Amino acid sequence: MEAFHSQMTGHQGPFSLRMFHPSFSLMLLQANISCPCTVLDFPSLEQFIGEITATPYDIIGITAVLINAAKVRTLCRLIRKHRPEATILVGGHITALPRIETRIDADHFVTGEGLRWLQHFLGEPDRLPIRHPPMDFATDIRTMGMPVNMRIANIVTSVGCPVGCPFCTISAKFGGRGKRIDFFNSADELFETMLDHEKKSGVSLFHLMDDNFLLDRKVALRLLELMELHDKSWSLAVWSSAGAIKTYSADQLVRLGISVIWIGIEGKDAEYSKLQNIDTVGMVRELRSHGIIVIASAMLGMDHHSPDNMDQVIDYAVSHQADFLQFTLLNPLPGTEFYEDMKAGGMLLSPDGEGYMIPHRRLQFGHRHPNIPRNTESGYLTAGFLRDLQVNGPSVIRAVDTLLKGWKRYGHAPDRRVCRRHERLSEAFGSFLAGAVWAAREWYRSDPVQYPRTDTLYQDICREFGQPVCTNSPATGARILSCMKEEDESLRRGDRHDPPATRKERIPLISYTQAIQMFHDAVTEIRPELGITPEDLSANPRLDEIGLDSADRMSVLGSLEQRLGICFDMKQVAIAMDVDAVVSMLLSQEKTG
Ligand code: SF4
């Protein structure tokens, strides 16, 4: 999946921001079940067939978004052919497809949250603390023909959004208005996971995958408290609604390390609660002035949009001057309120859902729009992206401008934590960003709009950072410019840039049943007189409730370590007060070698 290039910067030529996002949901599922599991991400058909024929899998699961429905149908047919005894599970947004069971040959369609569903399906308890394996938000990050040396940890904090906008598939899938499913019990747990990822991967930039992270002020402000307490100068990339952002001061956002924010600006006169009484143009300007990169999402195709006013609609979105601007069609996607409204009004083009089996449906309306003629809508999307580029310039250069604003404001801030975060930026300016702006200026040498803009930015960088940044940047810039030319040629040739296929196997040391049995054996060895049964333990009592004092607890844990030949993490040991917490530690152990 390549969200930025395919949904935002694809019209920006070599300036497009390229990166691939792994399938986070599959990685989470794999880490939270106690049977051996292999995740194949972006496999070719040959790799997929090779995998399922070589290994006698009992269960094969596929996750997909709606536009990949036809591909999933093909994969299921292949499974039936090459591994007919396997049970097929299909999850993800594709499950909203009307009458999916008649179109795709699978055994189970997982319509809501899949992690707890899968644990339940496998006969494992669906209440254990969720394990968050270290995962990168993106791989193979590139722009201007150059690799970008940046590592972003991805942590899934929750799914669903209680705001419940009528068109939103994310909200609809996880319960709709008023609902969200948290993957952490508290901000403290989230903080511990971030610490763990920092320790294991050396990251300081986190993408918190949450459809509306700032909506839960209690969690966000507690996280800020912990970051301050432990002197963490992390950078956070989050998604949040305008209404939620408005409840924070700029100072709070900056101290919380918010560095990138994805916000739905939707459109002028949009009557969604999250935008009520909010000047989104002013909000974006304000955020950028504090060094926060803004990704804004605008919608085309509201009822009042028409060929007569589409220029103004696009201009309004472009006037936000966000760093990245996404245009999407307001489309009735199955599962949403908007879809049901269109269906009830007889406005759907494919009421039986067959139309969703056509790839790239994202570029066309799925309903009869009151004003916009059919098959003209994708032209408006293109017009929007091109207008944004023409007026605001390439997104990555805008982002450099925002970073510079942040550096100027906070590079010497009295708050050392905030200052350190921006100091890291000064290194990026020295090593890459100044050269990138130099190259952009050369690229646009004969462009009367972009040249002065990039020249002003370049001069500003030189003034701010002085030597040796400004003496080194022409050499770096020349290298980047040459890569840009190659990239441009490659794009013009239509070269494909596919995500690398990955395969990751995870074999837990023991299963859930074995973990309970082993726990039982350890307790019985130390305190046989208690007469504890495996069934007692399965009910997850606190250890003191079943008669184990703190010395017994440590003896039991020591015995488990000996039996498995492992060492528990001392931090986890300190908080493992109930059976589930101990079992969870056991299940996190993997076979090596
Ligand atoms: S605020 Fe955003 S994530 Fe939440 S329901 Fe609306 S569109 Fe969906």
Overall description:
This protein has 593 residues and is an alpha/beta fold. The protein folds into four domains: 23-121, Rossmann fold (3-Layer(aba) Sandwich); 151-345, Aldolase class I (TIM Barrel, Alpha-Beta Barrel); 402-493, no CATH class; 509-587, Non-ribosomal Peptide Synthetase Peptidyl Carrier Protein, Chain A (Orthogonal Bundle), CATH 1.10.1200.10. The chain contains 24 helices and 16 strands. The strands form five sheets. A six-stranded parallel β-sheet has the order 8-11-12-13-14-15. Strands 1-6-7 form a three-stranded antiparallel β-sheet. A three-stranded parallel β-sheet has the order 3-4-5, with helices on one face. Helix 9 links the parallel strand 11 (205-209) and strand 12. Helix 13 (310-318) packs parallel to helix 15. The protein is globular, with a radius of gyration of 26 Å. The model has no long low-confidence stretch (mean pLDDT 93). Iron/sulfur cluster binds next to helix 7.
